[in-house]
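Take a specimen:
=====
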Amino acid sequence: MNKLLLTSALVAAFGAAALAPQVARAATNNPVSNPPTDGTINITGTVIAQTCKVDGKGAGTADTKNVPLPDVLTSQLAAQGDTAGDTNFSIAVTGCDSALSTVHTYFTGSNIATDGRLSNGTGTATGVEVQLLNGSDASVIALNSADGSQNSKPVNLTNNSATLEYAARYYANSTNVGAGSVNTSVAFTMVYE
């Protein structure tokens, strides 16, 4: 009886060993294939850098600020370093990611002069530039510096929003300011932390 059990066990073991490659092959080979595809999956999306709405613009939409300076007399800019026409403006951010805590503005562009102010791009007035200031304390923003060194003050986000206050003004970079128009611009990027 023990010989019969031993023989049966050996036959079962050899049979299982013989079938094992077949089972393994069946698991790795798909015997049923459909040469033409059964369908298509289209995946679309957008990656945006903007994490807040700037002045109510939709995500990924650039904002444009217009800051008209008042008319000033050349006599108000008679000495180099004189300033005039301080004009406040603001940039509002809303709908920010709740993980963010502060925001500041980083300014860039081709009109930034080596002295950190804005040259009079396409304007006709001579000897005059435009200076940007932080509205919170009227400190000068050094536009020719790297982000983090411009002195653009960070503002705390409250309820996922903030308003950043600034001012622009004329700056006499010469002792001989000539009358004419002032027309300049600067790009800005909101930096969140």
